């Protein structure tokens, strides 16, 4: 009888440890995907910052003389670790406070657990954005 009670208590304890382990694994996986999304967004932003203004606008708008606001959503997707797909969006706007500054915003979004975007009322959707102000004067 004592052996059965010990076995029952041990089983309950092991189930609790398994639950804790699964929770930690999910947390680590989510943090890893967020970090990977951040790297992808930063790389895209730095790539745009490295270009001259006409080249950057050609990339974003398909026209070297285009002016903000411009949005580019046709960058396509990037495949990350474990087959995770990241969607990229670039926005260029001109703040009204200064005509010589443009705001570059890169948004990276992904959907967890193989769900379709918008599934579960967006519970599985994640978006991360990075921004930078850039002068339009090439010499600066």
- Any low-confidence stretches, pLDDT <50, length ≥5? none
Give the C-alpha Rg.
23 Å
Separation, N- and C-terminal Cα atoms: 82 Å
Helix/strand order, N-terminal first: HHEEEEE
Give the fraction of residues assigned to helices. Answer: 40-55%
Estimate the global geometry from the Cα principal axes.
rod-shaped
What can be said about the biggest beta sheet?
Answer: 5 strands, antiparallel
Number of strands: 5
What would you call the structural class?
alpha+beta
- How much of the sequence lies in strands comes to 25-35%
The number of distinct helices, counting runs of at least 4 residues, comes to 2
| Average pLDDT, all residues | 88
Q: Total domains, how many? A: 1
Description:
This protein is α+β, with helices and mostly antiparallel strands and 140 residues long. The protein has one domain. The chain is 41% helix and 26% strand. It has helices spanning 2-50, 53-61; strands at 70-72, 77-79, 85-93, 101-111, 125-135. Strands 1, 2, 3, 4 and 5 form a 5-stranded antiparallel beta sheet that branches. A hairpin with a 5-residue loop joins strand 2 and strand 3. The radius of gyration is 23 Å and the shape is rod-shaped.
């Amino acid at each position: 009888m004592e052996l059965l009670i010990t076995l029952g208590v041990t089983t309950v304890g092991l189930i609790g440890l398994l639950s804790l382990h699964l929770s930690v694994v999910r947390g680590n996986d989510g943090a890893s995907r967020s970090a990977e999304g951040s790297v992808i967004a930063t790389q895209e932003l730095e790539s745009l910052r490295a270009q001259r203004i006409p080249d950057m606008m050609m990339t974003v708008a398909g026209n070297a003389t285009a002016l903000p606001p411009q949005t580019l959503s046709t960058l396509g997707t990037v495949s990350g670790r474990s087959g995770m797909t990241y969607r990229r969006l670039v926005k260029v706007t001109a703040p009204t406070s200064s005509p010589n500054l443009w705001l570059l915003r890169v948004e990276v979004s992904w959907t967890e657990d193989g769900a379709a975007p918008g599934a579960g009322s967006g519970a599985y959707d994640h978006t991360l954005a990075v921004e930078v102000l850039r002068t339009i004067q090439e010499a600066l």
